[in-house]
Amino acid sequence: MAEENIAEEITWLRRENQELKAEIERLRRLLEEALRASKRQAAPFSREKPKAHAQKPGRKAGIKYGRRCRRPIPDQVDKIVDVPLPACCPHCGGGLEEWATVSQFQTEIPEPRVERIEFRIHVGRCAQCRRRVQGRHRWQSSNAIGGAASQLGPRVLALATQLNKGLGLPYGKTAAVLEEAFGLRVSRSGLCQALARVAHKAAPTYAAMIEQVRGSPSVTPDETGWKVNGRLWWMWAFSTAEVTVYSIQDGRGFEQAALVLGADYAGFLVRDGWSVYRQFIHAYHQTCLSHLLRRCRELRLVLGSKKGRFPLQVQSILEHSLRLRDRFVQQQISPHGMATARGRLETRMERLLEVNYRRPENQRFANHLRREQDALFSFLHCPGLDATNWRAEQAIRPMVVTRKVWGGNRTPAGAITQSILVSILQTCRQQGRRGTQTLRQLLCSPQSKILDLAAPKR
Description:
Elements: H1 2-38, E1 123-125, E2 132-134, H2 154-166, H3 171-182, H4 188-214, E3 218-228, E4 231-239, E5 244-249, H5 254-261, E6 268-271, E7 284-287, H6 289-307, H7 309-329, H8 335-353, H9 360-371, H10 378-381, H11 390-406, E8 408-409, H12 412-431, H13 435-443
């Protein structure tokens, strides 16, 4: 009897040993992939090996060709150039007989040139209050004279702002583009000071945008690291359907978020699982399902098929909720059916979270879901509400690219300039406006004005 028990124990230990070896090998592969991914930040090369039988590049023949399109013929032609036949055949030198005339259209940038304007400003004095008054032309971007009489025009400043803040070019490359394209020489420090003046003009519009975000029925926030003078600050993004506001601050807490959103914000807050957002107690919350689904997939990868049943069940419920939303939008299910199916999903999730799980990874995930339980299916209670924070993620992405190019700002004043200008440019892009034209309106205004960016202009 004892020998049989020993034999069974040996068999069990051998099987456990094989399972542990397989687990060690799997974790080793995961560690290697994680180490490779950590070194992939500065070089966005392919993540996996090339396919053995990859498709050939270029257009496919037949039905797989794709969408057929070409550059449209211009509605207006500014110049017609006649192109005659050569004197003789370029191949054999024989004579030529003309038999047709065809057209080719070319859209070209005109020869760039710098326009230097001198404003003869008339200066006078009020006969009643004796205050000094001077004229102002609609092309002027400033009233400064004397030592600051030579300035950059509004078109130059708007383009430089778009290049530096909108496209992420450093000041040096922005100056290089201006010199290469237009022959305009400007220093990096001059651009830095000029963009600070642009931000000063745009500050009232930026404040109005913050008020618009606070009054919006739904806001999607997000944050990412940002360097100011080599120290870690945070770039906050608060995005709505019409407006996006950025704010670079020295913290990542509730105080910094409330500085833009307002501590008493009472609309819908579509956000990730960062605990700070839960402190907006007056808001209706929707946690990002994309983050949760990604965490489910990662847990299943780490735990394996046997021990990853809990994240698999959570993933099934969340994906079912997204399909339910799509069916309701397509009017394949009635409001009553929607409410019934929603209740079943909430019951399934509640039963999953009543269990105490042995694995620490599952237990941590379950605790997180318990904290977010009230915000999991808000989008099913309010049709039209986003289920993910994609809006803020897309708003953050250009700033991440800019951070990789030139790091951040050197001073807090530069961080304020960055926040104001990228907010206006991103909002213009979001609404289909031309950012350079909007900046020119601000620059050519004698006093600081507030532009109405509430309604999209598409």
